[in-house]
TrEMBL record:
Transmembrane stretches, start-end: 12-30, 255-275, 287-306, 326-351, 379-400, 468-490, 499-523, 543-563
Protein name: CAAX prenyl protease 2/Lysostaphin resistance protein A-like domain-containing protein
Keywords assigned: Membrane, Transmembrane, Transmembrane helix
Domain CAAX prenyl protease 2/Lysostaphin resistance protein A-like per the UniProt entry, residue ranges: 416-527
The keyword Transmembrane is assigned to this record: yes
Domain of life: Bacteria
Amino acid sequence: MNEIQLSRLDRRWVWAAAVGLLLFLLIQVFPSAGSLFSSGSSNVLTRSEAEAKAIFWAENKFGLSPKETSDAEITHLSDSDTVGYLSKYRLHDTYDKTWSNSAPTDVYAVSLSSSAYPGKLNLYIDMVKGRLVGWDHVPTKKRTGQASSGEGINESKQSAVARALQYAEYWGANPAEWNPDGYVQDDGSVRFTAASSKAAIGKAAVKLDVRVPASYNALSSAFPPWQSGFVRYGVDLPTDFLHDLKTQQTWSSKLSVFGFLLPSILFFILAIIYAGTYGDRTSFVRGIFLASVFFVLYAGITFNMIPGLRAGNWENGSSTGEQATIIVSLITYFVMAVMTYFSAVGGDGLWKSMGLALWPRWQEAGYGDSVLASMRTGYFLAFILLGMQSVILLAMENIAGSFSSSDATQSMYNMSFPWLLPLLAWCAGISEEMQSRFFGIALFRKWFVGIARKLIGREPSGRTVSALTFVAIVPPGLLWALGHVGYAIYPFYTRIIELVLMSLLFGWFMLRFGIMAVIFAHVTLDAVLMGVQMMFDGLPGDFAAGIFSLAMPGLVGILIWWLHRRLRRPAFRSGT
Protein backbone atom coordinates (compact mmCIF):
# COMPACT_ATOMS: atom_id res chain seq x y z
CA MET A 1 0.00 0.00 0.00
CA ASN A 2 1.35 3.40 -1.00
CA GLU A 3 0.82 5.71 1.92
CA ILE A 4 0.73 9.43 1.25
CA GLN A 5 3.34 11.60 2.86
CA LEU A 6 1.55 14.09 5.08
CA SER A 7 2.76 17.65 4.67
CA ARG A 8 4.52 19.75 7.23
CA LEU A 9 3.96 23.41 7.92
CA ASP A 10 6.25 25.83 6.16
CA ARG A 11 6.59 29.59 6.37
CA ARG A 12 3.62 30.24 4.08
CA TRP A 13 1.28 28.43 6.47
CA VAL A 14 2.65 30.36 9.43
CA TRP A 15 2.03 33.66 7.66
CA ALA A 16 -1.47 32.57 6.65
CA ALA A 17 -2.19 31.63 10.28
CA ALA A 18 -0.92 35.03 11.47
CA VAL A 19 -3.19 36.83 9.02
CA GLY A 20 -6.15 34.64 10.06
CA LEU A 21 -5.58 35.34 13.75
CA LEU A 22 -5.34 39.08 13.08
CA LEU A 23 -8.61 39.06 11.11
CA PHE A 24 -10.31 37.13 13.89
CA LEU A 25 -9.16 39.62 16.51
CA LEU A 26 -10.12 42.67 14.44
CA ILE A 27 -13.53 41.40 13.28
CA GLN A 28 -14.82 39.28 16.15
CA VAL A 29 -12.87 39.85 19.36
CA PHE A 30 -12.00 43.54 19.66
CA PRO A 31 -15.49 44.91 18.74
CA SER A 32 -17.22 42.57 21.20
CA ALA A 33 -14.74 43.25 23.98
CA GLY A 34 -15.00 47.00 23.40
CA SER A 35 -18.79 47.00 23.61
CA LEU A 36 -18.72 44.94 26.78
CA PHE A 37 -16.28 47.25 28.51
CA SER A 38 -18.12 50.39 27.37
CA SER A 39 -21.44 49.08 28.64
CA GLY A 40 -19.95 48.36 32.05
CA SER A 41 -21.28 44.79 32.04
CA SER A 42 -18.04 43.22 33.18
CA ASN A 43 -19.53 41.69 36.33
CA VAL A 44 -22.41 39.25 36.27
CA LEU A 45 -24.01 37.61 39.29
CA THR A 46 -23.23 33.97 39.82
CA ARG A 47 -26.13 31.56 40.09
CA SER A 48 -25.74 31.34 43.87
CA GLU A 49 -25.67 35.14 44.14
CA ALA A 50 -28.86 35.35 42.06
CA GLU A 51 -30.51 32.86 44.41
CA ALA A 52 -29.47 34.95 47.43
CA LYS A 53 -30.90 38.09 45.80
CA ALA A 54 -34.16 36.30 45.04
CA ILE A 55 -34.52 35.13 48.64
CA PHE A 56 -33.86 38.70 49.77
CA TRP A 57 -36.62 40.07 47.50
CA ALA A 58 -38.99 37.28 48.48
CA GLU A 59 -38.68 38.38 52.09
CA ASN A 60 -38.71 42.14 51.56
CA LYS A 61 -41.35 42.42 48.84
CA PHE A 62 -43.46 39.27 49.22
CA GLY A 63 -43.29 38.71 52.95
CA LEU A 64 -41.78 35.23 52.62
CA SER A 65 -39.07 34.39 55.14
CA PRO A 66 -36.16 32.22 53.98
CA LYS A 67 -37.58 29.37 56.05
CA GLU A 68 -40.77 29.49 53.96
CA THR A 69 -39.02 29.10 50.62
CA SER A 70 -37.34 26.02 49.21
CA ASP A 71 -36.31 24.25 46.01
CA ALA A 72 -34.84 27.30 44.31
CA GLU A 73 -34.27 26.75 40.58
CA ILE A 74 -32.09 29.31 38.80
CA THR A 75 -32.47 29.64 35.04
CA HIS A 76 -30.99 32.18 32.67
CA LEU A 77 -33.73 33.38 30.33
CA SER A 78 -33.17 35.49 27.25
CA ASP A 79 -35.75 37.20 25.05
CA SER A 80 -34.21 35.79 21.89
CA ASP A 81 -36.69 37.48 19.52
CA THR A 82 -35.95 40.90 20.99
CA VAL A 83 -32.20 40.26 20.98
CA GLY A 84 -32.47 39.30 17.32
CA TYR A 85 -34.46 42.46 16.53
CA LEU A 86 -31.96 44.68 18.32
CA SER A 87 -29.10 42.92 16.54
CA LYS A 88 -30.64 43.15 13.08
CA TYR A 89 -31.38 46.87 13.31
CA ARG A 90 -28.37 47.73 15.49
CA LEU A 91 -30.50 49.05 18.33
CA HIS A 92 -28.62 47.52 21.27
CA ASP A 93 -27.13 50.85 22.34
CA THR A 94 -30.52 52.58 22.19
CA TYR A 95 -32.14 49.87 24.26
CA ASP A 96 -29.31 49.84 26.80
CA LYS A 97 -29.64 53.58 27.36
CA THR A 98 -33.42 53.56 27.82
CA TRP A 99 -34.80 50.22 28.98
CA SER A 100 -32.04 47.82 30.00
CA ASN A 101 -32.33 48.85 33.67
CA SER A 102 -36.06 48.26 34.05
CA ALA A 103 -36.67 45.70 31.28
CA PRO A 104 -33.45 43.80 30.48
CA THR A 105 -33.57 41.21 27.71
CA ASP A 106 -31.61 38.72 29.84
CA VAL A 107 -32.51 37.79 33.41
CA TYR A 108 -32.06 35.11 35.99
CA ALA A 109 -35.42 33.49 36.66
CA VAL A 110 -35.38 32.13 40.21
CA SER A 111 -38.29 29.79 40.92
CA LEU A 112 -39.17 29.45 44.59
CA SER A 113 -41.56 27.01 46.22
CA SER A 114 -43.39 27.77 49.44
CA SER A 115 -45.24 25.44 51.75
CA ALA A 116 -47.68 28.23 52.55
CA TYR A 117 -48.51 29.07 48.92
CA PRO A 118 -48.78 26.16 46.45
CA GLY A 119 -47.22 26.71 43.05
CA LYS A 120 -44.10 28.49 41.88
CA LEU A 121 -43.10 32.08 42.55
CA ASN A 122 -40.82 33.14 39.70
CA LEU A 123 -38.65 36.16 40.42
CA TYR A 124 -36.81 37.78 37.50
CA ILE A 125 -33.49 39.18 38.68
CA ASP A 126 -31.25 41.67 36.89
CA MET A 127 -28.11 39.67 36.09
CA VAL A 128 -25.72 42.52 36.89
CA LYS A 129 -27.32 44.62 39.63
CA GLY A 130 -29.50 41.99 41.26
CA ARG A 131 -32.66 44.12 41.14
CA LEU A 132 -36.12 42.59 40.96
CA VAL A 133 -37.33 43.42 37.45
CA GLY A 134 -40.48 41.31 37.31
CA TRP A 135 -42.25 38.31 38.76
CA ASP A 136 -45.17 35.95 38.38
CA HIS A 137 -46.86 33.35 40.51
CA VAL A 138 -47.92 30.13 38.82
CA PRO A 139 -50.44 28.26 40.98
CA THR A 140 -50.38 24.48 41.22
CA LYS A 141 -53.77 24.35 39.57
CA LYS A 142 -54.94 26.55 36.76
CA ARG A 143 -56.95 29.52 37.89
CA THR A 144 -60.67 29.06 37.31
CA GLY A 145 -62.94 31.99 37.82
CA GLN A 146 -60.60 33.86 40.15
CA ALA A 147 -61.17 37.58 39.82
CA SER A 148 -58.44 40.03 38.99
CA SER A 149 -58.14 43.35 37.22
CA GLY A 150 -60.92 43.84 34.73
CA GLU A 151 -64.48 42.75 34.26
CA GLY A 152 -64.13 39.84 36.69
CA ILE A 153 -64.48 42.26 39.62
CA ASN A 154 -67.07 44.49 37.93
CA GLU A 155 -64.62 47.32 37.39
CA SER A 156 -64.75 49.75 34.54
CA LYS A 157 -61.81 49.64 32.17
CA GLN A 158 -60.61 52.98 33.47
CA SER A 159 -60.59 51.87 37.10
CA ALA A 160 -59.02 48.51 36.23
CA VAL A 161 -56.19 50.25 34.39
CA ALA A 162 -55.63 52.73 37.24
CA ARG A 163 -55.68 49.92 39.77
CA ALA A 164 -53.15 47.85 37.78
CA LEU A 165 -50.76 50.77 37.39
CA GLN A 166 -51.00 51.54 41.08
CA TYR A 167 -50.28 47.89 41.87
CA ALA A 168 -47.29 47.85 39.51
CA GLU A 169 -45.86 50.95 41.19
CA TYR A 170 -45.36 48.98 44.37
CA TRP A 171 -43.17 46.58 42.39
CA GLY A 172 -40.96 49.32 41.01
CA ALA A 173 -42.76 50.54 37.90
CA ASN A 174 -42.66 54.29 37.30
CA PRO A 175 -46.20 55.40 36.25
CA ALA A 176 -44.73 58.29 34.26
CA GLU A 177 -43.03 55.82 31.91
CA TRP A 178 -46.26 54.10 30.87
CA ASN A 179 -49.22 55.17 28.80
CA PRO A 180 -52.31 55.35 31.02
CA ASP A 181 -54.57 53.88 28.29
CA GLY A 182 -53.71 50.25 28.90
CA TYR A 183 -56.12 47.56 27.82
CA VAL A 184 -57.56 44.59 29.67
CA GLN A 185 -56.54 41.23 28.18
CA ASP A 186 -58.40 37.94 28.14
CA ASP A 187 -56.63 36.63 31.24
CA GLY A 188 -57.66 39.70 33.25
CA SER A 189 -54.26 41.34 33.09
CA VAL A 190 -53.68 44.87 31.89
CA ARG A 191 -51.10 45.78 29.26
CA PHE A 192 -49.30 49.11 29.18
CA THR A 193 -46.92 50.41 26.52
CA ALA A 194 -44.01 52.76 27.00
CA ALA A 195 -44.86 56.44 27.12
CA SER A 196 -43.72 58.66 24.27
CA SER A 197 -41.25 60.40 26.56
CA LYS A 198 -39.06 57.32 26.26
CA ALA A 199 -36.84 56.91 23.19
CA ALA A 200 -38.39 54.69 20.54
CA ILE A 201 -36.83 51.27 19.94
CA GLY A 202 -37.23 51.32 16.19
CA LYS A 203 -40.73 50.09 15.45
CA ALA A 204 -40.85 48.08 18.66
CA ALA A 205 -42.62 49.09 21.87
CA VAL A 206 -41.71 48.05 25.40
CA LYS A 207 -44.69 46.62 27.27
CA LEU A 208 -45.71 46.01 30.87
CA ASP A 209 -48.24 43.30 31.73
CA VAL A 210 -49.88 43.42 35.16
CA ARG A 211 -52.37 41.05 36.72
CA VAL A 212 -53.73 42.20 40.06
CA PRO A 213 -55.04 39.68 42.61
CA ALA A 214 -58.69 40.35 43.48
CA SER A 215 -57.89 40.90 47.15
CA TYR A 216 -55.53 43.79 46.46
CA ASN A 217 -56.35 46.88 48.50
CA ALA A 218 -54.30 49.99 47.80
CA LEU A 219 -55.03 51.35 51.29
CA SER A 220 -53.59 48.32 53.08
CA SER A 221 -50.22 48.90 54.71
CA ALA A 222 -49.32 45.20 54.72
CA PHE A 223 -47.62 43.30 51.89
CA PRO A 224 -49.96 43.39 48.88
CA PRO A 225 -51.31 39.98 47.79
CA TRP A 226 -49.39 38.33 44.97
CA GLN A 227 -50.91 34.87 44.59
CA SER A 228 -51.84 34.25 40.91
CA GLY A 229 -50.64 37.74 39.97
CA PHE A 230 -47.74 38.98 37.92
CA VAL A 231 -45.78 42.06 36.85
CA ARG A 232 -43.79 41.33 33.69
CA TYR A 233 -41.93 43.41 31.15
CA GLY A 234 -41.40 42.58 27.51
CA VAL A 235 -41.20 44.01 24.01
CA ASP A 236 -43.90 44.17 21.34
CA LEU A 237 -41.99 43.52 18.15
CA PRO A 238 -43.16 44.49 14.65
CA THR A 239 -45.40 41.88 13.05
CA ASP A 240 -43.38 41.74 9.86
CA PHE A 241 -40.17 41.00 11.79
CA LEU A 242 -41.83 38.22 13.81
CA HIS A 243 -43.32 36.73 10.64
CA ASP A 244 -39.95 36.75 8.92
CA LEU A 245 -38.28 35.22 11.96
CA LYS A 246 -40.92 32.49 12.12
CA THR A 247 -40.40 31.73 8.44
CA GLN A 248 -36.64 31.46 8.98
CA GLN A 249 -37.13 29.12 11.93
CA THR A 250 -39.55 26.96 9.94
CA TRP A 251 -36.98 26.60 7.16
CA SER A 252 -34.31 25.74 9.72
CA SER A 253 -36.51 23.02 11.23
CA LYS A 254 -37.29 21.47 7.85
CA LEU A 255 -33.66 21.51 6.75
CA SER A 256 -32.57 20.01 10.07
CA VAL A 257 -34.95 17.08 9.57
CA PHE A 258 -34.81 16.46 5.82
CA GLY A 259 -31.35 17.85 5.10
CA PHE A 260 -29.48 16.51 8.13
CA LEU A 261 -31.33 14.00 10.31
CA LEU A 262 -32.60 11.65 7.58
CA PRO A 263 -29.33 11.69 5.57
CA SER A 264 -27.42 11.11 8.82
CA ILE A 265 -29.41 7.92 9.38
CA LEU A 266 -28.40 6.79 5.88
CA PHE A 267 -24.78 7.71 6.64
CA PHE A 268 -24.98 5.63 9.83
CA ILE A 269 -26.13 2.58 7.86
CA LEU A 270 -23.42 3.11 5.25
CA ALA A 271 -20.76 3.45 7.96
CA ILE A 272 -21.77 0.05 9.36
CA ILE A 273 -21.75 -1.52 5.89
CA TYR A 274 -18.35 -0.16 4.92
CA ALA A 275 -16.86 -0.98 8.32
CA GLY A 276 -17.84 -4.58 7.68
CA THR A 277 -16.76 -4.54 4.04
CA TYR A 278 -13.30 -3.10 4.66
CA GLY A 279 -12.78 -4.36 8.19
CA ASP A 280 -9.93 -6.58 7.03
CA ARG A 281 -7.92 -3.48 6.11
CA THR A 282 -8.24 -1.87 9.52
CA SER A 283 -9.05 -2.85 13.10
CA PHE A 284 -12.39 -2.85 14.88
CA VAL A 285 -10.56 -1.55 17.93
CA ARG A 286 -10.07 1.75 16.09
CA GLY A 287 -12.47 4.44 17.20
CA ILE A 288 -13.57 2.82 20.46
CA PHE A 289 -11.57 5.23 22.58
CA LEU A 290 -12.65 8.36 20.66
CA ALA A 291 -16.31 7.31 20.63
CA SER A 292 -16.16 6.61 24.36
CA VAL A 293 -14.57 9.98 25.06
CA PHE A 294 -17.29 11.65 23.00
CA PHE A 295 -20.11 9.96 24.93
CA VAL A 296 -18.60 10.43 28.41
CA LEU A 297 -17.91 14.13 27.79
CA TYR A 298 -21.33 14.80 26.29
CA ALA A 299 -23.07 12.93 29.12
CA GLY A 300 -21.23 15.08 31.66
CA ILE A 301 -22.02 18.25 29.73
CA THR A 302 -25.70 17.25 29.60
CA PHE A 303 -25.92 17.10 33.38
CA ASN A 304 -23.93 20.33 33.59
CA MET A 305 -26.52 21.95 31.30
CA ILE A 306 -29.67 20.97 33.20
CA PRO A 307 -30.58 24.67 33.73
CA GLY A 308 -30.19 25.10 29.95
CA LEU A 309 -32.59 22.22 29.33
CA ARG A 310 -35.00 23.90 31.73
CA ALA A 311 -34.65 27.17 29.79
CA GLY A 312 -35.62 25.35 26.60
CA ASN A 313 -38.71 23.88 28.21
CA TRP A 314 -39.53 27.31 29.67
CA GLU A 315 -39.30 29.07 26.32
CA ASN A 316 -41.32 26.38 24.54
CA GLY A 317 -43.98 26.33 27.22
CA SER A 318 -43.33 22.61 27.64
CA SER A 319 -44.33 20.76 30.78
CA THR A 320 -41.76 18.04 30.10
CA GLY A 321 -39.40 17.69 33.03
CA GLU A 322 -35.65 17.88 32.71
CA GLN A 323 -35.41 14.16 33.50
CA ALA A 324 -37.18 13.19 30.28
CA THR A 325 -35.03 15.60 28.27
CA ILE A 326 -31.87 14.17 29.84
CA ILE A 327 -32.86 10.61 28.95
CA VAL A 328 -33.60 11.56 25.34
CA SER A 329 -30.32 13.48 25.13
CA LEU A 330 -28.26 10.59 26.51
CA ILE A 331 -29.86 8.13 24.06
CA THR A 332 -29.14 10.54 21.20
CA TYR A 333 -25.51 10.98 22.22
CA PHE A 334 -25.06 7.22 22.57
CA VAL A 335 -26.31 6.72 19.02
CA MET A 336 -23.96 9.49 17.85
CA ALA A 337 -21.07 7.79 19.66
CA VAL A 338 -21.84 4.50 17.92
CA MET A 339 -21.99 6.32 14.59
CA THR A 340 -18.64 7.95 15.35
CA TYR A 341 -17.15 4.52 16.05
CA PHE A 342 -18.35 2.97 12.78
CA SER A 343 -17.31 6.12 10.89
CA ALA A 344 -13.79 5.71 12.29
CA VAL A 345 -13.57 2.03 11.34
CA GLY A 346 -15.31 2.42 7.98
CA GLY A 347 -13.35 5.56 7.10
CA ASP A 348 -9.99 3.99 7.95
CA GLY A 349 -10.83 0.91 5.88
CA LEU A 350 -11.99 3.02 2.93
CA TRP A 351 -8.88 5.20 2.87
CA LYS A 352 -6.57 2.22 3.12
CA SER A 353 -8.46 0.47 0.31
CA MET A 354 -7.60 3.50 -1.81
CA GLY A 355 -3.95 3.34 -0.84
CA LEU A 356 -4.06 6.19 1.66
CA ALA A 357 -3.32 6.27 5.39
CA LEU A 358 -4.48 9.39 7.20
CA TRP A 359 -4.60 8.11 10.77
CA PRO A 360 -1.58 6.68 12.62
CA ARG A 361 -2.03 3.99 15.25
CA TRP A 362 -0.98 3.90 18.89
CA GLN A 363 1.20 0.85 18.26
CA GLU A 364 3.41 2.79 15.83
CA ALA A 365 6.69 4.00 17.29
CA GLY A 366 6.18 7.55 16.05
CA TYR A 367 2.58 7.91 17.20
CA GLY A 368 3.34 10.28 20.07
CA ASP A 369 5.45 12.51 17.85
CA SER A 370 2.65 12.49 15.25
CA VAL A 371 0.15 13.65 17.87
CA LEU A 372 2.49 16.42 18.98
CA ALA A 373 3.03 17.56 15.39
CA SER A 374 -0.71 17.37 14.70
CA MET A 375 -1.42 19.49 17.76
CA ARG A 376 1.02 22.19 16.64
CA THR A 377 -0.35 22.07 13.11
CA GLY A 378 -3.90 22.20 14.47
CA TYR A 379 -3.30 25.57 16.13
CA PHE A 380 -2.05 27.16 12.91
CA LEU A 381 -4.89 25.65 10.88
CA ALA A 382 -7.40 26.86 13.48
CA PHE A 383 -6.15 30.43 13.15
CA ILE A 384 -6.59 30.22 9.38
CA LEU A 385 -10.13 28.87 9.86
CA LEU A 386 -10.98 31.59 12.40
CA GLY A 387 -9.85 34.27 9.96
CA MET A 388 -11.87 32.78 7.12
CA GLN A 389 -14.94 32.42 9.34
CA SER A 390 -14.65 36.06 10.41
CA VAL A 391 -14.46 37.28 6.82
CA ILE A 392 -17.42 35.12 5.75
CA LEU A 393 -19.63 36.30 8.62
CA LEU A 394 -18.67 39.93 8.01
CA ALA A 395 -19.49 39.54 4.32
CA MET A 396 -22.83 37.87 5.09
CA GLU A 397 -23.70 40.64 7.52
CA ASN A 398 -23.10 43.33 4.90
CA ILE A 399 -24.45 41.48 1.86
CA ALA A 400 -27.35 39.43 3.22
CA GLY A 401 -28.08 41.39 6.41
CA SER A 402 -27.21 38.44 8.62
CA PHE A 403 -27.75 38.84 12.34
CA SER A 404 -27.67 36.69 15.44
CA SER A 405 -30.01 36.17 18.33
CA SER A 406 -29.53 34.56 21.74
CA ASP A 407 -30.04 30.98 22.87
CA ALA A 408 -30.41 30.48 26.60
CA THR A 409 -30.25 26.70 26.19
CA GLN A 410 -26.56 27.05 25.26
CA SER A 411 -25.78 29.85 27.70
CA MET A 412 -22.85 29.58 30.09
CA TYR A 413 -25.08 31.25 32.67
CA ASN A 414 -27.15 28.06 32.51
CA MET A 415 -24.22 25.82 33.35
CA SER A 416 -23.68 24.53 36.85
CA PHE A 417 -19.94 24.68 36.17
CA PRO A 418 -19.25 27.09 33.28
CA TRP A 419 -15.55 26.21 33.19
CA LEU A 420 -16.49 22.78 31.78
CA LEU A 421 -17.68 24.39 28.53
CA PRO A 422 -14.39 23.85 26.62
CA LEU A 423 -14.88 20.09 26.89
CA LEU A 424 -17.66 20.50 24.34
CA ALA A 425 -14.98 21.36 21.77
CA TRP A 426 -13.70 17.78 21.91
CA CYS A 427 -17.19 16.37 21.35
CA ALA A 428 -17.61 18.43 18.19
CA GLY A 429 -14.06 17.88 16.97
CA ILE A 430 -14.16 14.10 17.37
CA SER A 431 -17.65 13.32 16.07
CA GLU A 432 -17.93 15.83 13.24
CA GLU A 433 -14.47 15.21 11.81
CA MET A 434 -14.79 11.44 11.99
CA GLN A 435 -18.26 11.45 10.42
CA SER A 436 -18.20 14.33 7.94
CA ARG A 437 -14.55 14.36 6.94
CA PHE A 438 -12.86 11.03 7.62
CA PHE A 439 -15.73 8.77 6.58
CA GLY A 440 -17.81 11.15 4.46
CA ILE A 441 -15.04 12.28 2.09
CA ALA A 442 -13.67 8.74 1.81
CA LEU A 443 -17.14 7.43 0.89
CA PHE A 444 -17.80 9.95 -1.87
CA ARG A 445 -14.23 9.74 -3.17
CA LYS A 446 -14.62 5.97 -3.44
CA TRP A 447 -17.90 6.39 -5.32
CA PHE A 448 -16.76 9.17 -7.64
CA VAL A 449 -13.48 7.50 -8.62
CA GLY A 450 -15.30 4.19 -9.10
CA ILE A 451 -17.88 5.84 -11.37
CA ALA A 452 -15.11 7.55 -13.36
CA ARG A 453 -13.29 4.22 -13.75
CA LYS A 454 -16.40 2.57 -15.18
CA LEU A 455 -17.18 5.47 -17.49
CA ILE A 456 -13.73 5.64 -19.09
CA GLY A 457 -12.91 1.94 -18.79
CA ARG A 458 -9.55 2.45 -17.12
CA GLU A 459 -7.92 4.01 -14.09
CA PRO A 460 -8.53 7.79 -14.08
CA SER A 461 -5.52 10.09 -14.23
CA GLY A 462 -4.01 11.63 -11.13
CA ARG A 463 -5.41 15.01 -12.06
CA THR A 464 -8.90 13.51 -12.42
CA VAL A 465 -8.60 11.76 -9.06
CA SER A 466 -7.51 15.03 -7.44
CA ALA A 467 -10.49 16.86 -8.94
CA LEU A 468 -12.90 14.12 -7.85
CA THR A 469 -11.37 14.16 -4.36
CA PHE A 470 -12.06 17.89 -4.13
CA VAL A 471 -15.65 17.36 -5.30
CA ALA A 472 -16.03 14.59 -2.71
CA ILE A 473 -15.49 17.17 0.04
CA VAL A 474 -18.73 19.00 -0.84
CA PRO A 475 -21.58 16.50 -0.06
CA PRO A 476 -20.49 15.62 3.49
CA GLY A 477 -19.61 19.29 4.01
CA LEU A 478 -23.15 20.26 3.05
CA LEU A 479 -24.54 17.64 5.43
CA TRP A 480 -22.32 19.03 8.20
CA ALA A 481 -23.53 22.56 7.45
CA LEU A 482 -27.19 21.54 7.52
CA GLY A 483 -26.64 20.11 10.98
CA HIS A 484 -25.96 23.66 12.22
CA VAL A 485 -28.92 25.56 10.74
CA GLY A 486 -30.73 25.41 14.09
CA TYR A 487 -28.36 27.95 15.60
CA ALA A 488 -29.76 31.43 16.30
CA ILE A 489 -28.16 33.03 13.24
CA TYR A 490 -30.34 34.45 10.48
CA PRO A 491 -31.10 34.22 7.59
CA PHE A 492 -31.06 30.45 7.92
CA TYR A 493 -28.72 30.03 4.96
CA THR A 494 -25.99 32.08 6.67
CA ARG A 495 -24.52 29.07 8.43
CA ILE A 496 -24.95 26.86 5.36
CA ILE A 497 -22.80 29.19 3.26
CA GLU A 498 -20.31 29.68 6.08
CA LEU A 499 -19.81 26.00 6.88
CA VAL A 500 -19.82 24.70 3.32
CA LEU A 501 -16.93 27.07 2.60
CA MET A 502 -15.25 26.08 5.87
CA SER A 503 -15.70 22.39 5.00
CA LEU A 504 -13.59 22.88 1.86
CA LEU A 505 -10.70 24.00 4.05
CA PHE A 506 -11.29 21.25 6.61
CA GLY A 507 -11.29 18.61 3.87
CA TRP A 508 -8.18 19.99 2.22
CA PHE A 509 -6.41 20.16 5.56
CA MET A 510 -7.27 16.52 6.33
CA LEU A 511 -5.90 15.31 3.01
CA ARG A 512 -2.75 17.35 3.47
CA PHE A 513 -2.05 16.92 7.21
CA GLY A 514 -4.12 13.90 8.31
CA ILE A 515 -7.21 13.41 10.45
CA MET A 516 -5.49 14.08 13.79
CA ALA A 517 -4.38 17.54 12.70
CA VAL A 518 -7.92 18.36 11.58
CA ILE A 519 -9.42 17.13 14.84
CA PHE A 520 -6.97 19.34 16.74
CA ALA A 521 -7.78 22.24 14.37
CA HIS A 522 -11.52 21.82 14.96
CA VAL A 523 -11.08 21.51 18.73
CA THR A 524 -8.77 24.51 18.83
CA LEU A 525 -11.15 26.62 16.75
CA ASP A 526 -14.05 25.87 19.10
CA ALA A 527 -11.86 26.19 22.21
CA VAL A 528 -10.70 29.64 21.10
CA LEU A 529 -14.26 30.81 20.46
CA MET A 530 -15.42 29.42 23.80
CA GLY A 531 -12.39 30.77 25.60
CA VAL A 532 -12.92 34.29 24.29
CA GLN A 533 -16.59 34.06 25.26
CA MET A 534 -15.66 32.98 28.78
CA MET A 535 -13.07 35.74 29.15
CA PHE A 536 -15.77 38.37 28.66
CA ASP A 537 -18.88 36.71 30.13
CA GLY A 538 -18.50 38.60 33.43
CA LEU A 539 -18.55 35.55 35.71
CA PRO A 540 -15.83 35.43 38.37
CA GLY A 541 -13.08 32.98 37.51
CA ASP A 542 -14.14 32.59 33.90
CA PHE A 543 -11.35 34.80 32.54
CA ALA A 544 -8.81 32.28 33.85
CA ALA A 545 -10.98 29.44 32.56
CA GLY A 546 -10.99 31.14 29.16
CA ILE A 547 -7.20 31.25 29.13
CA PHE A 548 -7.17 27.56 30.01
CA SER A 549 -9.57 26.88 27.13
CA LEU A 550 -7.09 28.44 24.69
CA ALA A 551 -4.28 26.22 26.00
CA MET A 552 -6.36 23.04 26.43
CA PRO A 553 -5.75 21.44 22.98
CA GLY A 554 -2.02 21.93 23.43
CA LEU A 555 -2.05 20.44 26.91
CA VAL A 556 -3.99 17.39 25.68
CA GLY A 557 -1.56 16.89 22.80
CA ILE A 558 1.42 17.04 25.16
CA LEU A 559 -0.30 14.63 27.57
CA ILE A 560 -0.94 12.05 24.81
CA TRP A 561 2.67 12.38 23.63
CA TRP A 562 3.94 11.85 27.20
CA LEU A 563 1.64 8.88 27.82
CA HIS A 564 2.72 7.23 24.60
CA ARG A 565 6.36 7.54 25.59
CA ARG A 566 5.63 6.14 29.06
CA LEU A 567 3.18 3.37 28.24
CA ARG A 568 4.37 2.01 24.92
CA ARG A 569 7.23 -0.39 25.52
CA PRO A 570 9.58 -1.43 22.71
CA ALA A 571 8.86 -4.88 21.37
CA PHE A 572 10.98 -7.72 22.84
CA ARG A 573 13.67 -8.89 20.50
CA SER A 574 15.44 -12.20 21.06
CA GLY A 575 19.17 -12.05 21.58
CA THR A 576 19.17 -8.64 23.15
